[in-house]
């Protein structure tokens, strides 16, 4: 649910392009990435975006949440096919997700941004829902299951609160990661030409 395979594929494409001196531009790399996986182009772009369709049409979204992100893996993966088989999508939400992401304060996201797949995964994997609840108990401004699961992330506005949550999840035996939401598309691998 964190795009690990897709981000690895995107990085590999960028590295091959650089090492082999192919000279492919980002749109060409994104077209190649589509053949590897629906969200590979998102990771080739490497910055916040709003994906539609199968995830291959990406509109840049100029957001940069402040704070810290704690990501927790419960130790048991979620089946993506099962998550989608049991989901009841909401085809016509009452609000624009893009507008919420750009205009609403982080603390309002809890009531407005809901991963439809949670309703499918939580009944089969109670631990995932419990971890999301614990994120809020530990002080997260927003928490959600990532993709089809089973990882959960919480966004914390204060570093000491995030550190406490991170340490608490570790003490409970979960694999956890603490990071800042910084988007750096090139990661030192791809250097843009400057005229």
Q: What would you note in describing this structure?
A:
There is one protein chain. This protein is α+β, with helices and mostly antiparallel strands and 195 residues long. The protein folds into 2 domains: 4-60, Ribosomal Protein S5, domain 2, CATH 3.30.230; 68-179, 2-Layer Sandwich (Alpha-Beta Plaits), CATH 3.30.70.890. It has helices at 4-19, 26-36, 40-45, 80-85, 97-103, 109-112, 118-121, 126-137, 159-171; strands at 49-52, 57-60, 68-73, 142-145, 152-156, 175-179. The strands form 2 sheets. A 4-stranded antiparallel beta sheet has the order 4-5-3-6, covered by helices on one side. β4 (142-145) and β5 (152-156) form a beta hairpin. α1 (4-19) packs across α2. The radius of gyration is 18 Å and the shape is globular. Mean pLDDT is 86; it is low at 184-195.
Question: What's the structural blueprint in terms of helices and strands?
Answer:
Elements lengths: L3 H16 L6 H11 L3 H6 L3 E4 L4 E4 L7 E6 L6 H6 L11 H7 L5 H4 L5 H4 L4 H12 L4 E4 L6 E5 L2 H13 L3 E5 L16
Helix pairs in contact: 1-2
């Amino acid at each position: 649910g964190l795009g690990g395979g897709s981000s690895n594929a995107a990085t590999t494409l960028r590295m091959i392009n650089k090492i082999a001196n192919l000279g492919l531009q980002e749109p060409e790399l994104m077209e190649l990435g589509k053949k590897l996986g629906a969200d590979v182009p998102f990771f080739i772009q490497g910055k916040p975006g709003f994906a539609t369709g199968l995830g291959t049409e990406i509109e840049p979204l100029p957001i940069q949440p402040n704070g810290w992100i704690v990501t927790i893996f419960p130790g048991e993966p979620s089946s993506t096919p099962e998550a989608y088989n049991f989901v009841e999508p909401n085809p016509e939400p009452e609000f624009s997700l893009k507008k919420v992401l750009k205009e609403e304060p982080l603390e309002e996201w809890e009531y407005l941004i809901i991963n439809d797949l949670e309703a499918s995964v939580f009944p089969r994997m109670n631990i995932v829902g419990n971890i999301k609840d614990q994120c809020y108990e530990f002080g997260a401004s927003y928490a959600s299951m990532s993709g089809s699961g089973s990882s959960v992330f919480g966004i914390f506005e204060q570093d000491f609160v995030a550190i406490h949550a991170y340490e608490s999840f570790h003490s409970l035996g979960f694999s956890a990661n603490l990071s800042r939401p910084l988007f750096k598309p090139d990661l030192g691998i791809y250097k843009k030409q400057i005229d």
